[in-house]
Amino acid sequence: MPIGELSERTSTPRQLLRYYEEQCLITAARSPNGYRDYDDYLVDRVLQIRGLLDAGLPTRIIKQILPCLDRPRIIYFSDATPEMIGTLERERDRMTERIECLIRNRDAIADYLNAVRSNKSASAHATSEVPATS
User: Fold this and answer.
1) Which of 21, 42, 54, 109 has the most beta carbons within 10 angstroms of its beta carbon?
2) Residue 99 CA to chain centroid, in angstroms?
3) CA distance linking residue 91 with residue 95, whole number of Å
4) Would you call 76 helix, strand, or coil by DSSP?
5) Over 31-58, what HEC string results?
6) Which residues pair with 30 in a beta bridge?
7) C-beta neighbour count of 33 within 10 angstroms
8) Measured between alpha carbons, how far is 47 from 58 in angstroms, rounded to an integer?
9) By the 8 A CB rule, do 49 and 20 touch?
C-alpha cells in the first residue's frame, strides 16, 4: 500500500511514518517508480509503535523489542544488556502504574455515570408520580 493509505489507516502523519522507517522500525519495498510500498501487516505494527511511544518508550528500545511482538516469536537476546533489561523493567512497572491509574479513573467515571443515571431515573419517576394541580 502507498504511504498515504498507511497514514490514513493508522492516523499517523506521513512524516512520522518516514521517521519510523529511518529508525528501522518499519520497512517499505520500493516500486519501480521509487514510491514506498508498505505491507498490510504494517498497519498493526505502526499502531504498536505508536502505543509504545505513547507509553514513553524511546525508539531505540522499541526497535529492540519489536521482534517480541511478531508471530512466530523469534527473539534475539544477543543485545539484551543489563541496562536495557533494567530500562524495560522500569518501563513495564511504569506502564503497570498507568494502567492501574486508568482503571481507577475508568471505574470512577463509571460510578459517576451510574449515579447520574440513577438520579435522573429517580427524578423522572418522581416527577411522573406528582399529581397535576388545577
Assistant:
1) 42
2) 12
3) 6
4) coil
5) CCCCCEECCCCHHHHHHHHHHHHHCCCC
6) 36
7) 5
8) 15
9) yes
The rounded Cα 84 to chain-centroid distance in angstroms is 22
At 37, the amino acid letter reads D
Return the number of other C-beta atoms located less than 10 Å from residue 10's C-beta: 19
Per-residue pLDDT of the chain (134 residues; tens, 9 = 90+): 999 999 999 999 999 999 999 999 999 998 899 888 999 999 999 999 998 898 888 888 888 888 777 654 455 566 677 887 888 888 889 889 988 999 999 999 999 999 999 888 777 766 666 565 55
Q: Give the pTM.
A: 0.62
Identity of the amino acid at 48: Q
**Rounded to an integer, what distance in angstroms lies between the CA atom of residue 109 and that of residue 106?**
5
Cα–Cα distance measured from residue 120 to residue 102, given in angstroms and rounded to the nearest whole number: 27
Angle separating helix axes 42-54 and 59-69, nearest 10 degrees: 130
